[in-house]
Write a structure and sequence with these properties.
Structural class: alpha+beta
Number of helices: 11
Shape: globular
Order of helices and strands: HHEHEHEEHHHEEEEHHEHHE
Distance between the termini: 49 Å
Strand order of the largest sheet: 3-2-9-6-7-8-5-10
Radius of gyration: 19 Å
Helix content: 40-55%
Strand content: 15-25%
Length: 339
């Protein structure tokens, strides 16, 4: 398939999704999904924007496959400047549900109560769900196209689809927990969180979900992507509160899972070791939904080469500068756990 065909297919699939909340609240669906912001535009993105633009990953799946086809997988997609009207958006919810289900986090967050935590987790999981579902449909079209089985990338595409199917099933479980909490109209008791507050504002924001399998002790890595789900997903939101200070919220539903417990315990050991820098670096490396201030990103220089492009999975502290304790932000700050 040509670059144009891939792009058209990608757009068509994403434009033909239904509101994610339709399954549990169809009566209040107001129509087709709108272009929703996973990171609030006026209360979040605008704070780090320059000329109404932020730098984001160009995560178009069609572009990624085009690059792999041309370069054999050696070329990487970098951050690009996008307007805040476009950055972090996805066609996930109708206008009614986008307004009602996230009303507490689309305005300045003054406290992290149960309802705020529920909305943070639901949005993070929904963003991942939308892109995994669209990815599977996209990959299925590629695999069924004429001559696809003769393409050198066929096995890689098939493996990617299988991985996405596993991830989608896990995302469905997380979303169902959130939807149950919304449906019962009771205070959220099923989604838990650990929230860290900083006394500075970082030039980076992020919303997404990951599967924890390692701590950040010694030479182990923060997260490991595998074909098998090792633990329930953790939602991560790096945002700005009502006081214009950064917060890092980690939301989850299974506080008894060994991987979740180990990960959360390991984080606390690094509260005094450039903790916000670690959070920012992880978001830049692993999330397709990280947004950052353009002038700050353009000034990273060695970080883009040494850490962002390489990623945690290739990090070996015996060969490279350790990630723990890095001075990425060049800021002096304090951190405390507030939830």
């Amino acid at each position: 398939m040509t670059r144009k065909e891939l792009e058209d297919l990608d757009k068509k699939i994403k434009a033909n999704q239904i509101c994610i909340a339709h399954n549990f609240d169809a009566a209040h669906c107001s129509g087709e999904p709108i272009t929703s912001h996973s990171i609030a535009r006026s209360e979040q993105l605008k704070r780090i924007a320059e000329n109404d633009k932020v730098c984001v990953w160009n995560n178009s799946i069609s572009k990624c496959f085009h690059l792999m086809d041309e370069s054999g997988g050696t070329q990487k997609t970098l951050f690009e400047p996008w307007t805040i009207q476009k950055a972090s958006t996805f066609e996930g919810f109708c206008n009614c549900h986008d307004t009602q289900l996230f009303n507490l986090i689309d305005k300045p967050i003054t406290s992290f109560n149960d309802e705020v935590i529920l909305q943070l987790h639901y949005r993070a999981m929904s963003y991942e769900y939308f892109h995994k579902k669209a990815s599977i449909e996209f990959l299925e079209k590629i695999l069924s196209s004429d001559g696809a089985d003769k393409n050198l990338l066929y096995d890689m595409v098939e493996t990617t689809k299988e991985r996405d199917v596993i991830a989608l099933n896990d995302l469905k479980k997380e979303i169902s927990v959130c939807e149950k909490a919304f449906s019962t109209k009771n205070a959220n008791k099923d989604v838990k969180a650990i929230v860290f507050s900083f006394d500075v504002m970082a030039p980076v924001m992020c919303t997404g979900g990951w599967v924890p399998s390692h701590t950040i002790d010694k030479k182990t890595v923060l997260f490991h992507e595998d074909m098998k789900s090792l633990a329930p997903l953790i939602g991560m939101t790096l945002g700005i509160d009502a006081n214009n200070k950064s917060f890092w919220a980690l939301t989850y539903t299974d506080d008894t899972n060994i991987h979740v417990k180990k990960f959360l315990e390991s984080l606390k050991k690094y509260l005094n070791k450039r903790f916000l820098d670690i959070a920012v670096l992880f978001c830049l490396q692993k999330s397709q939904n990280a947004c950052c201030r353009p002038s700050w990103y353009n000034g990273l220089q060695k970080w883009r080469k040494d850490f962002i492009d390489r990623g945690f999975n290739e990090m070996d502290e015996s060969l490279h500068k350790p990630v723990v304790g890095v001075n990425l932000l060049n800021l002096v700050y304090a951190v405390k756990q507030i939830v």
